[in-house]
Amino acid sequence: MDQQSESNPAHDEPSAAPSERQPARQRSHKRPKDIRELCYPFIYETQFQCDYEIATDELCCQVGGVMAMLPVAPSEGEAAVFADLDKLQRLIYNLNGSVRGRLGIFEEDMAWLKERYDLYNEASRGRVTGFVLPRGPQPIPALHLCRCASKKVVRLLVRLEESGVSYDPILPRFANLLANFFFVLTVFLKQEWQVPEVSYVSINY
């Protein structure tokens, strides 16, 4: 006998009448009438745009934290870092709105950040030749968190593309560059402060 023709008791049970079926699950979160109960207009959105905007907002806040940790009486190098971070905060908020709204990151922004990257990289050339541990006096750890947060922004852009949301290719380029820029800032500042790098030798690769 063909096994597919055998009766399956589990499938022979009569289906529940419409009145006996479980009601459709309701969304537990609705836009409140009281604006004080809403932290962001799109916070209950089920797409990744809101997650991306929160991630870029968090990154901008982290950059502000780094700025607060820089010396009150800065050296020339520290003052340059502060000025660059001041400009970057605005660019990160431009990055924030560039998926839902109009594009706010342009090739001249890429060129400026690459120029600043090259400046700090050249100033600290040869100091890092392999993996190093993300440690040191503040704001070095905070800058490493900015670096990681930039990577998270890139990953959210990947998720957005995967979900069918289109955006300008300059956005992931800029976010990747941001991550590299924050790293080179850690190297530059540790050189300024004569803080040694601590090497890490991977046992995995």
Layout of helices and strands:
Elements: H1 9-12, H2 48-69, H3 76-96, H4 107-123, H5 140-162, H6 170-192
Region (Disordered): 1-30
Keywords: ATP-binding, Nucleotide-binding, Transferase
InterPro entries: CblAdoTrfase-like (IPR016030), CblAdoTrfase-like_sf (IPR036451)
What keywords describe this structure?
single chain; 205 residues; mainly alpha; Hypothetical Protein Ta1238, Chain: A; 6 helices; 54% helix; disordered N terminus
Q: What report would you give on this structure?
A:
With 205 residues, the chain is mainly alpha-helical. The chain has a domain at 46-122 and 134-192: Hypothetical Protein Ta1238, Chain: A (Up-down Bundle). Helix content is 54%, strand content 0%. The protein has six helices and no strands. The N and C termini lie far apart (56 Å).
